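Chain A, query sequence.
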Amino acid sequence: MRRGQAAIELLLVLAFAGLLLLPFVWTALKTSQTDTTLVQARKLVNDLASAAEYVYAQGPGSIARVRGTVPAGVVWNESYIGKPAWAGAGASEREINLRVETSSGYNDVWKTTNARLRGSWPDGPGVYVFNVYMSDDGYVIITPYLSIVVDPHYQYLSVPAGNTSTFQYSVSNYLDGSVGITMNVTGEVGSWVTLSNATAVILSQGREYFNATVAVPYNASPRIHYATIVVSGANATEYLEVEVNVYNSTIVTGNYTRPVYTVQTYKDPGYTVPWDVFYQGKIVNITGSGWDPNSIVTLNVSVGGTPLTGFPKDVQTDSSGNVQYYLVTNNLVPGTYLVELNDSTDVRTTSFEVRECA
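Chain A, predicted structure.
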C-alpha cells in the first residue's frame, strides 16, 4: 500500500513540475522559431544586396540569381525593394527591406546598396529563385521566380542572309519535384527558329540544355529581326528574347545586269526584234573577295532549292583571293536565284532575279 501511495505521489510531483516548466518550454520554442525566421530573412536580404552590388559593378546587361527562403510571417505591404509606391519623396531607392512578424513583435530586416533598385517580393513564403538584373536605365531589377528559370533571357545573333546559326540555352527547375515543360517560338520571325525539343521533363533541382537553330532566308531584309522562345511549366512562364541581325555578305557580291525573260513580249505581233537578239548579253557577273589566294571554292546557283545544270562547280581564286564567274541567263525561267560560295569553312550567299517582261 505504501509503495502505491509513493508512486502516486511521485506522479503528482512530476506533473506539477511539468506545469511549472511548460511556460519556459513554450518560450524556448517560440524563441527558436523567431531566431529561425530572422536568420532566414537576414540571409536572403544580405544575399540579394550582394547580388545587386555585383551586377551594378558589372554594368548594364549583367545578371545574377539568388536562391533563398522567404520566411513565414512576412508583412507584405510593408516589405519592399527600392522605393515603395507609398513612400514619400525623400525615401531611398537603394534599400531592400523585409518586415517579419515574430513572437517578439515586428522586425525590419534591411540592407542599403550603392545601386538604385526596383523589384518585388513574392506573395507567400517558400523557397524562391530571384533574378537580379542590371538594366540599361541604371536600375538593378530584382524579381522572384517560383519554379523554372531560363538562362539566358536574351540572345543576340548576327547571321548572313541565307545562313544558319545555332545557340544553346538551359531550363532549371528549383522545385522539389520534377516539372514537365513545353517550348514554342513566337514573334516576327518565329518561323526561322527550330527548337531541338518541344517538350521535356526537368528533374528536381535539375537543369537541362537545349539547342535552337535560326535559319535566315536568303531574301531576308538586312536589319534586326525578333523572335521569342516561350517556356512554360509548373504554372510559370519564362521568355528568351532572340534578336537576329541579318546582313548581306560582303565576300560575295552580285554585280550584274538584271536579266529579262521575254516570252510574253515575244507573243506581241507588233514586236519585231528577234528574240535571240533581244536576249543577248544578259549575264550575271558573280564576284567575291577575301578568300584564300590561289585556292578552290565551290560555286552553286540554284532556284527553288534545285541547282542549275552543271552546278555546283569548282572556281579558282586569284593571287589576291578574288573570284569571278559570268553566268549567262539564256533559258533561265523567271524566279529568284540563290548564289552560294563555299570553301568548307565559310559559306556566303547572295541572290538575283530573272524577271518576265509584261
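The CA atoms of residues 161 and 218 lie 5 Å apart. The chain has three helices and 25 strands.
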